[in-house]
Design goal:
Blueprint: H1 35-40, H2 49-64, H3 68-73, H4 78-90, E1 94-101, E2 108-119, E3 122-136, E4 143-145, E5 161-166, E6 172-175, H5 191-201, E7 211-216, H6 219-223, E8 229-235, E9 240-243, H7 248-258, E10 264-269, E11 276-281, H8 288-291, H9 301-310, E12 325-328, E13 331-334, H10 346-352, H11 355-359, H12 369-376, H13 401-407, H14 418-430, H15 457-473, E14 487-494, E15 503-510, E16 513-519, H16 529-534, H17 551-555, E17 558-559, E18 565-566, E19 592-593, E20 598-599, E21 647-649, E22 655-657, E23 663-665, E24 671-673
Parallel strand pairs: 6-9
Antiparallel strand pairs: 1-2, 2-3, 3-4, 5-7, 7-8, 10-11, 10-16, 12-13, 14-15, 15-16, 17-18, 19-20, 21-22, 23-24
Helix pairs in contact: 9-12, 9-15, 10-15
Length: 703
Amino acid sequence: MLGGVIAVVVGGAGFGAYALFGGGAAAEDGTRTSSSAQAKDVRTGPLSAAEVTGTAERFLTAWQSGKVKEAAATTDDPEAAAALLTAYAEDARIKDLTLTPGTRAGGKVPFAVKGTVSAEDVSKPLAYDSALTVVRRAGDGEPRVAWQPAVVHPELKEGDTLVTGEAGTPPVKALDRDGDELTTAAYPSLGPVLDGLREKYGEKAGGEAGVELRIVRGKASKKAELSDKTLLELSEGTPGTVKTTLSPSLQAAAEAQVAKKERASVVVLRPSTGEILAVANSSHGFNTAFSGSLAPGSTMKVITASLLIEKGLASVDEQHPCPKYFTYGGWKFQNDDKFEIKDGTFKASFARSCNTAFISQAPELADDDLTKQAQQVFGLSMNNWQVGVPTFDGSVPVQSKAPMGASLIGQGGVRMNPLNMASVSATVQSGVFRQPYLVSPQVDGRKLATASRTLSAGTLAQLRELMSYTASYGTAAEAMAGVSGQKGAKTGSAEVDGQKKPNGWFTAYRGDLAAAGVVQQGGHGGSTAGPIVARRPSVRPGDRASGPETERQARRPSVRPGGRASGPEPRAWPSGRASGPKPDAAPGSRGPAPGSGVSAGRVRRRPRRSAAGTGSGSWSRTAPPTRPARCGTRPRPGPGRTATPVSRPGPRGRAAPAPAVPVRRSIRGARRPEAPCGHSGGPARSRSAVPRVPLHGPHPGRR
């Protein structure tokens, strides 16, 4: 501020050679007309540089001088402008204002704001950048500042206000399960979670509020799930303490994984308790993992499969239709690449993610069957979860005809997020729905949501078999190749209007861990979200250190399921030929797996994008046989051969041959039989030195 005037840019590409005096003298641009002429003529055409700079000059000069009505009169919404500018001085308590315009770009004029915020004998300087845009006013074409709250401060939305005073809620110090503080410096994506914890527990955690300048959100912002935001802290409050269930090692691993993808989110749970062990988003401004509302694609088939099995419309080892197309409610549904499985079982359809296998059962279902299944068994779509921070609890609306059919494969009106789908896997693993939570209900006595019933033992066993088979031989096999022990998974791809690629989904469990992730516009879930979910932490839960695994750790031997120590993954099967992960199987090619209705064909190195309106449907790296191979076979690997089965007693004492063991083909053509009896019969393990995440390694919290 120089002699009571606003500092200006003189000459060049800036405002030009003029000064903004305290009274707001208008620039002589030679374009003004008499009042009578204005009544007759309406200004049109692009704004001149003089019109833009002159209007900006009058607005900024009046605002800096405290002449609110004059400033508001230069805008196209004087009433709204006057209200917010008045609150800026009286409620936000900002004085000694200095406004410095920058270089004009068309009708937009940036400007720097400097001032002082004072409250309760405490003052602090305030500085930020903003911008205004000059437009022609409707009716007479006069240049005016296009009014919006962001002119006053760039983070203000419609209905928001700036307030200086005692903080709305005391600050909180959030702790992980080991008692260490959680900060955005250590875990960048936890910002929305920490804001939610303060909003929920600030007044209950025993802290005292400080004095701050903050944005108080209006109705529109709250509907968009934006929280109040502190802009300047004048005096620190005393934080209360809130302990969460987050595991420091799993949280660090999750943060590292989502950072590798754009718009990725992941959640890790403990099925036996419902504790949330990790939550991470590559986009730090919105917690998609908890509050996102996205079509889950074929991961929804876990819920649908449980429904079909309960109603006797499907069974793991029974034949189940998987045609190329199925028309229902006037919509024609198809599978990825229009594949079909002839004479295949429901297990094969689930593992390969056959859309028509599920939609073909729609005529046998009531409109509300899927909704009831999601609510009664999986605790979803009732809007009653008490996690400790705001969440979206999934939505499975009652629909009819074609939209109902689409809902069976996770399209239509179904909406979920990674928290919801991690809970689905946790429910399958434990056999009972336990509402996920971030803060123990013992802290505030809140009541967690429950489901009204559980699956029968027979249905649950079949559902686990489907997910286990998919994790070992289906679309999830590649991502889960390095995960040992009891495991299950399901992939998904959800088409979204206006997106070139579908959203990729993946949900899985291993031992007492369950997780789910999504990569928006990522493509097929097995290759995008799968690696995020299946990676393991670089340190054991409970250790303080975190970060990328060292080269020494990467080289250390691992222990295979059989218990023998092993070094780096061998690069050749026993035949001596080099090999890699198990390849795709293309329908109609040579070497079918007996009884599966699927052929073991050539390697498809890139998964294709699924057709509009379908779920994942892609066959990632292998085609599953209808039935798992049985023990007692004598493998005789070789070109074009299957293992010869050992005879077993058949009906009336006659010998009946066991089904042939399906044969896998390596990338370079070497063949080996599946190992069906608890050995490492899944796809080849990854030879990457990069460790795998939440579903691998000891359970968090165990010492």
